Structures are given as structure tokens and as C-alpha cells.
Amino acid sequence: MTNTKHINITSEIVYKGKYINVRIDTINKDGHISQKEVIESRKGVVIAFMSDDGKLLLISQYRHNHGQILELPAGGMKDNERPLQAAKRELLEETGIKAKSWKLISTHHNGVHQEGENYFFIARGYLNKASLSLDDDENIGTSKFYSFKQIASQMQKGKIPCLRSRSCIWLTELILDGSWKVGK
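RE: above sequence
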């Protein structure tokens, strides 16, 4: 099996939405023409805010396709917004927290058929706590700190369905136990 580059012949956006677009790319791979579906999404940020005793802050949010779920604070980046600026804004909007220290841990895509980077940060330490400032389409309930054992239990119950939150939680756990070195 060879790794032959796909040559993009055409791209057509077949759906344009507020948060995502769906595009069909017609590609040529070694003379074989096929179509690939691609989801275009905004760049986003995900924040693992850690307490001094090593617990993660999860927010309870209503999602129309899942009901009430738990997830890490996260959101889309605005035009011309830098990743750290967006992460600070999202944490403040969704939890009312301004954090003391920030570290970019990873940049990743949601899936192989999706464009749009996500920036994952670990934040620690309170500067202050303010009131929430939610977007019109957000329905956030409470926020609470959970141990990794409690988080695993919530995942097993199906309360944390978002793979973006799950992967960042797992990466945080790998960083804390020394299995993952930041910058590698």
C-alpha cells in the first residue's frame, strides 16, 4: 500500500451553517476519481481548569441532541481572535472564572473528515470569579469540580458524550501522571 497524494479537482459547499459548512471535494487518486465529504468548522478552544487539589471543572449544559450533559468549558474562536484570548473569554463567559496561569497543551482536529483546529489549554488558579456571560444559544447550568475517578463514572453513565471534552480530559490525565510530555 502506498501513500499517494490526493489531487483536489473541485470543491463545492453543499451546506452553509452558523457553526459548520459541509463541502464535497472531488479528488483524483492515481487516476481514480472519487468524492470526499468534509466538515468545515470554526477554530475552537477547550479549557481544563484545574483546582489546587487536581480536580477538573466541568460545566452542565443542555444540548438539544443529548439533553443535560457535562463538558469542559469550550467554544468557537471569533474572527481575528488569538487562541489564548478565546480560551480566556470562554472560561470567563461560561464559568465566571479568570485563571492565573495558562498553558497550551495541544492543537488538534476533531476528526479526519473535519477541518478547523481546536486549541486545548490547561488553566489553574483563580484571579477572580464573576457572573456568567452566555451566548444566546448557550444553556449552561452549574459548574462543579470532579476528580478523575468521578469523571470516569460520569463517562460510563453517558453524561460526557463530547469526544472533544473526553480527549482533553484524557490528555490532562496523561500529563499529570507523566506519560505525556508537553511539547512532544
